[in-house]
Amino acid sequence: MENSNKSLRLFFALWPDDATRDALNRTGKWLHQHWGGRRMRADTLHITLAFLGSTPIGQLDTLTACADAVRTDAYELILDQAGYWRHNRIGWLGASQTPPQHLELVGALNTALQAAGFPIDPRPHVPHVTLLRKSQGGEVPACAPVHWPVSEFVLVQSVTESDGAHYEAIRRWPLA
Ligand code: ATP
Ligand code: MG
């Protein structure tokens, strides 16, 4: 295949619908008032399911087959808990309760990826939307719960530009 050695920076993610993105962005503003730092642009907000990193284009068909193998029902994810990671100074919104379907989705995807020989993240998955970078953190403010109807997952290409990473969903998989 032509150019099959060219690589793309890729990851699987949940991408918010417009209403969910607006709600997440409002929480980003709220959290920024408390913790400072750099707010993520609204159009970048997402939840990473599996990070692949630099991947040869020739492996896209294998990746697609991995995602095709995932059979998870649609679900609602309620993001109601702010969190802060000191090691990378990230402020995020997560879930006090993770629905079993979400863990099943992440588990099935990673199992398929591992079986196909892709490197997977050994750390336990913490569903989170990064809202702030280079943030100081502090006392955790109460956050209005964001109800995210999860009806698909996507494969995203990440392109680094002068103003930060830009993301483009290049494939989509609906959940039943
Ligand atoms: P930048 O790296 O340019 O600051 P970014 O981190 O948003 O921007 P990417 O590095 O392409 O962009 O990462 C895309 C997504 O994958 C982000 O949600 C990021 O947190 C996550 N991610 C990046 N590296 C890893 C990794 N090694 N393991 C797990 N998730 C990762
Ligand atoms: Mg990064």
Number of strands: 10
Widest beta sheet: strand line-up? 3-1-9-10
| Helix-strand sequence | EHEEHEEEHEEEE
CATH superfamily, by name, is Cyclic phosphodiesterase
CATH architecture: Alpha-Beta Complex
> Low-confidence spans: pLDDT under 50, at least 5 residues?
none
Name of the CATH first level: Alpha Beta
Structure description:
The chain is built from three helices and ten strands; from the N terminus they run βαββαβββαββββ. The longest helix is centred in the first third of the chain and has 18 residues, at 18-35. It has a four-stranded antiparallel β-sheet. A four-stranded antiparallel β-sheet has the order 2-7-6-5, covered by helices on one side. By secondary structure, the chain is an alpha+beta fold. The protein is globular. It has one domain (7-174): Cyclic phosphodiesterase (Cyclic Phosphodiesterase, Chain: A). Bound molecules: adenosine-5'-triphosphate and magnesium ion. Adenosine-5'-triphosphate binds next to strand 1, strand 3, strand 9 and strand 10. The site of adenosine-5'-triphosphate has 10 residues, from strand 1, strand 3, strand 9 and strand 10.
